[in-house]
Amino acid sequence: KLTSLALQPVITPELVQGRVHLKCTFSRPSSKVPLQYMVVWSRLSTPGKKEQIQRDTTLQSFSYVEMNGVNLKLGDTVFCIVTAFTRDTLEQQSLPEESKGFYAGIKFLPESLQIAEDGKEHVLTVLSTVPIACPGHIDSCKITLQLSTEDLGNQLLGPPNIALSACQVDLLRAPCSESSCAAAALTVTAVTDFAQDGNRISRIRAEPVGWRDLLWRAYTPKDVKVTVRDLPTGNCYSFTDPHIITFDGWRYDNYKIGTFLLCRSMSRAFEVHVRQWDCGGHRSATACNCGVAAR
């Protein structure tokens, strides 16, 4: 009887005649009897449930399945199960061995982010686990992804909660290695909004644009969830006949007429100028804010 033969099937992506295929490769055991192999391909249809898409019987130590956009689409997690038989009698068979699930599509790393309103940039890598085919022209060996953000909380809270370093990225075809066949990086920063609005959740969406290929056309990658931790912010004021309260709570008045530097950062290009004019009339000399400029 054949027992466990340590076939160790592994799925890798490959371009075959310009079309995306997945290849299931397994170890050929050093058996004295000639063997043949049955390879069953399946995809995760719902969580915990697999759907068979192809069955091959082969003498080779590999099997291919095409990602045609119909029974096997981008976004699918794919498995292959290999069973070895003695070639003479099909009664003798090994225990079936299953590969790890291969996710075919676009991935974000990390898959979710937890950031704070502290101005720090966080690198987000977007990659394709399958190779990008060139339809006719070599210069179109790329996928362009349009990026957008959405605040999942209260839409009345105002401006976006996160900022991206790019509105779109190009995934250029590269040799497949370590589950990446094309990759690009961008940065995500939490918007410092000077509001005590609690922790908020946003999502980043990527959509392939201008792609006529059936495989990519109907595909939208999974969103990235970004949790933004609210941080307390400093406030300073200049009001009425200018009473000024500084960030650390110090209070004073400035009754003068003219343009003044109200605030300047020592660490970044940020400053606020204020213009004051005479608004007191004949009886009292009083100045009021009449203009502000911020950089």
TrEMBL record:
The gene is Vwde_0. InterPro entries: Dev_Signal_Modulators, Ig_VWDE, VWF_type-D. Residues 234-295 form the VWFD domain. GO terms for molecular function: signaling receptor binding. GO terms for cellular component: cell surface; extracellular region. It comes from Spheniscus mendiculus. This is von Willebrand factor D and EGF domain-containing protein. Pfam families: Ig_VWDE. Keywords: Disulfide bond, Signal.
